[in-house]
Design brief:
It is built from twelve helices and 15 strands. It is an alpha+beta fold and about 400 residues long. Bound molecules: iron/sulfur cluster. Iron/sulfur cluster binds next to helix 2 and helix 10.
């Protein structure tokens, strides 16, 4: 398994809502999303399940869960299992080492049940979501996961659902509601909905309202005025033009990286971004979480139920959270460490670790543990050592 290298930034011909979001914070992040090695990162289990959820809801909207008089929820669960199995088989080796089967992915059964319940609700013949005036309307009245492009081809996007009759665009989100906490459409979601509305308008479809539909079935709604929608499209075009002007002069990933606690939150290329590791400080913890880099000074091996575990003592540690003088990373399954194919785990190796958990921390010692779903442990190559120094 190879550690991916950072991509060279190139000109972007068009902008999707996700690339637009990346460009708003960091050009290097956008370059990774557009030109990075696909499948090189383990990714998150929730991303796999989120894609399966969307597959099921799209199929429900299209009415393809209704064949042969089958029960919609049963068909939805069957499709969810099928898609999850396909994605799990293609998933990164490290993710499959952490979770033995697709059913071991966190919240598998919850997401599957949510998808099935929502599928029943939105399925065309259920008579719940589609009652009344929509009866008799066929699919041309609704665009389901259809790719749209602006007339100048600079903006692209694929909304989950555009209901032409109701002039509404719907985006399904798998985030779970927190009991007692009021939910609202986030700024990011508003920008996304405005761009979808703009693309619909460019294709002759009027959209006046945006809906974020949560996995629970709850809907959060915002009005989308023509002025807001056009302003967002103008802002996206401007971001694209600025990026292209910069990369025409400077294509180096590290030079484009704009590291800050806000920008680097949730960044998918954090592990490869030397600028982040050179800049991050313990004061960044609240925004970015707990990450560290360091050199292995000793390795202690053990076996637990047939699993090879290593405990690593680290020095030269830099971190996004406060640590003691001595840092120990405990009980890491060796299979979870991402490295170049033939690189053995050696004392002296430099590692980067993301999303660790602190078991104990004093001024003298910090003991760290892993989070199965979130932590990644990467062993770096001599090339990375040079870039970092
Ligand atoms: S880690 Fe930060 S600086 Fe690096 S690419 Fe991501 S957002 Fe940009």
């Amino acid at each position: 398994m190879k550690i991916p290298s950072v991509p060279k930034a190139r000109k972007l011909n068009s902008l999707s809502p996700s690339l637009y979001e990346a460009l708003l914070v960091c050009k290097a992040r956008a370059a990774w999303i557009a030109f990075g090695e696909k499948g090189a990162m383990p990714g998150r289990p929730e991303a796999i399940l989120g894609s399966c959820f969307h597959d099921v809801i799209a199929a429900a909207h299209k009415g393809t869960l209704l064949h042969g008089g089958a029960d919609v929820e049963e068909e939805a669960r069957r499709l969810f299992d099928l898609k999850a199995q396909e994605r799990f088989q293609k998933a990164h080796e490290t993710l499959r080492a952490k979770f033995r089967t697709k059913e071991h992915l966190p919240f598998y059964h919850l997401q599957r049940a949510s998808a099935a319940a929502l599928a029943r609700k939105v399925s065309p013949e259920s008579g719940v979501e589609n009652a009344g005036k929509r009866q008799g309307l066929q699919h041309p009245a609704r665009l389901i996961e259809q790719s749209l492009q602006s007339k100048d081809e600079m903006l692209t996007g694929r909304a989950d659902l555009i209901d032409v009759a109701d002039k509404v665009v719907v985006d399904y989100k798998t985030r779970q509601e927190i009991p007692g906490q009021s939910e609202e459409v986030t700024d990011r979601e508003k920008r996304q909905l405005r761009l979808y509305a703009y693309l619909a308008g460019q294709n002759g479809i009027t959209v006046e309202r945006g809906v974020v539909a949560l996995a629970s079935g709850r809907k959060l709604s915002v009005d989308l005025t023509e002025a807001q929608v056009n302003a967002e499209a103008d802002a996206a075009r401007a971001a694209l033009s600025r990026y292209n002007a910069v990369v025409a002069e400077q294509s180096d990933f590290e030079e484009l990286a704009q590291a800050s606690p806000i920008n680097c939150q949730y960044c998918p290329s954090m592990i490869l971004c030397s600028r982040f590791w050179q800049t991050a400080k313990p004061s960044w913890e609240e925004q970015v979480g707990k990450h560290l880099s360091g050199r292995i000074v000793s390795i202690t091996r053990a076996q637990l139920q047939g699993v090879e575990l290593v405990t690593l003592k680290l020095d030269e540690v830099s971190s996004t959270f406060a640590i003691g003088k001595e840092v120990m990373l405990e009980q890491v399954p060796e299979q979870w460490i991402i490295r170049d194919d033939d690189a053995p785990l050696l004392e002296g190796s430099l590692i980067r670790v993301t999303h660790v958990q602190v078991a104990v921390s004093t001024a003298e010692q910090t003991v760290l543990r892993l989070n199965r779903a979130k932590t990644e442990v990467w062993m770096l190559t001599p090339h990375h050592h040079q870039v970092d120094s």
